[in-house]
Amino acid sequence: MELQNTPATLDAPAAAPRLEVTALSKTYGSGPNAKCVIEDLTFTVNKREVVCIVGPSGVGKTTLLKCLAGLQPATSGTAAIDGRTIDGPPPEMALVFQDYSRSLMPWLTVRKNVRLPLRHLRLPAQEMNGRIDTALAAVGLSHAAGQYPWQLSGGMQQRVAIARALAYRPEILIMDEPFASVDAQTRFELEDLCLKIRDDFGMTILVVTHDIDEAVYLSDRVVVLGAKPARVLDIVGIDLPAPRDQISTRALLEFAEQRTNVLSMIRKPA
Amino acid sequence: MNRKLTNWILGAGTPVVVVALWWVASENSTNTFFPPLNAILERFQALWLFEHFGSDVLLSLRNLVIGYALASVIGVGLGFVTALVPVIRWGLDPLIHFLRGIPPVALVPIFISLIGFGIEMRLASITLAAVFPTLIATVDGIRGVDSTLKDVSQVYRLTRTEKLAQVYLPAAGPQIASGMQVSLQVAFIVMIASEMLGSSQGIGAMTLLAQQSFMTADMWAGILLLGVIGFGANLVFEAIKNNVLAWYVGSKRLARS
Questions:
Q1: In this predicted complex, what is the ipTM?
Q2: Cβ A168–B251 below 8 Å, yes or no?
Q3: Residues belonging to chain B with any Cβ–Cβ distance to chain A shorter than 8 Å
């Protein structure tokens, strides 16, 4: 098994990991009723890397992200950014939630939704508006700025949530099954948008998904989780050429090999 | 569109028909308790437009507005604190539910014995009675704020003020508005009740006095005025609500279609 840490797009091969998860476990409850959701997870995400976490559904991926985002404390082990342990929402991180329809404020227009997290950053008005315009343009929603989220389709709502994260200019972007409930065409567009963000803004991106094709297509490395409790089965380096392309990359023999590789790992009885 | 028009005609037409029937049926009435509508309207004009307008109608309305405004502010404020501070929630919750079980009008005698028959008593009664629906709706609304929205405000590190004013308040807005609408009705009831007990001024006092002096046309005129005020107050409330909560009204309408 290839355990290569160097993504194709990384300039400095020996880059220190930005996000470091060490022996992380999460147990709900205590005593005989304790339910261990995550057990002893260890992996890293390097600067400007796209890493996907795949695994069977219900394996505790969302719990993992909540620990990484500082929304829930880990039971043991640590998650750290640049060596700094995460014990609350880190300022350099943004999270795109799985349930986009519930993560947007229905009383705010698209533009105001994107603006909400920027207000307390006290940016000059010009920069704030610039960031909002750039983010909305990046997700192709400049025309919908004045509309309310509930007037938009699911795919557009998820793009609003992504635009909100972009305008916040996080260094680390975490996405929880971000494209799970959008149609296939939109999904391809959003996947490419994700790669474009990484290249344009130099972001470090961690995506949880249950779609193995998507994971292989997006990733520099794929962290394969096994059930239950969640633990790392393997970390697979994806050595597909950049830039990735929905048609030609997915047609590559290596693409098929990698997805077969990851899929067989998930299907294999532990 | 056609259906909408039909409904509108039905809604507006029915009261007109009822009034017309009342007018015709009572035209030659000699019953002391049911004078002709004609006579009631004459008294209505004589009493309220505008002989007692300044002295009684405005006084009642002022009490209603001030009492209701105080109740809304206290209800929403206390609701926020109760919903968000666990110690206060555990301490206040049973008390709130006990107090709201008391019929609002029953509070008036307590206030009369405590602070007498003056305007302060009336204001205090209206305010206290009208606080509960808003308070309880606010607590429920805040506690029902979607956990994803709370996570979003945490991840994006919104300040406490932003969380309260930009997330919790609007998210609980529809429920708070429902509570405030009930509070308005309660405030109106208590406004009348507080005037009927030992007061000589206000619409309620005038109406009761008319009844006690067998001036039934005057009494009916008072009841009519109360109906008009209640209807108008609700209309104003709905208009403001639909304006402030336009996003909610719009999203509900879209979800239905």
A1: 0.84
A2: no
A3: 146, 148-149, 151-152, 154-159, 162, 166-167, 170-171, 173, 247-248, 250-251, 254-255
Residues A81 and A190 in one domain: yes
For residue B164, the domain's CATH number is 1.10.3720.10
Of A134, A169, A204, the domain-final residue: A169
Give the residue ranges of DSSP H helices in chain A. Answer: 61-68, 100-103, 110-115, 125-138, 154-167, 184-201, 212-218, 248-251, 253-267
Instruction: Evaluate whether A195 touches A244 at the Cβ level (below 8 Å).
Output: yes
Domain that residue B221 falls in: 46-256
Would you call A102 and B148 a contact, using CB atoms and an 8 Å cutoff?
yes
Domain termination residue (choose one: A169, A192, A223): A169
Closest CA to A226 of A20, A41, A21: A41
Residue of B202, B226, B199, B193 lying closest to B108 (CA atoms): B193
Contact (CB<8Å) B151/A97? yes
> In Å, how far is A69's CA from the nearest CA of chain B?
7
For B99, residues 6+ apart whose C-beta sits below 8 A from its C-beta are: B132
pLDDT, tens digit (0-9, with 9 covering 90-100), for B8-42:
888 888 888 998 998 888 888 888 788 888 888 88
Pairing mode of beta strands A172-176, A231-237: unpaired
State the CB neighbour count (10 A cutoff) for residue A156.
19
Do the domain assignments include residue A8? no
pLDDT one-digit tens code per residue, B217-231: 888 888 888 998 999
CA pair distance A173, A160, nearest whole angstrom: 15
- The total domain count for chain B is 1
What element of type H or E holds A52? strand A50-54
Task: Say if the Cβ atoms of A93 and B254 lie within 8 Å.
Answer: no
A269 confidence band (pLDDT: 50, 70, 90): low
The distance of A224 to chain B (nearest Cα, Å) reads 26
Among A97, A105, A168, pick the best mutation site for testing chain B contact (most B Cβ within 10 A).
Answer: A105
Same domain as A233, residue A113: no
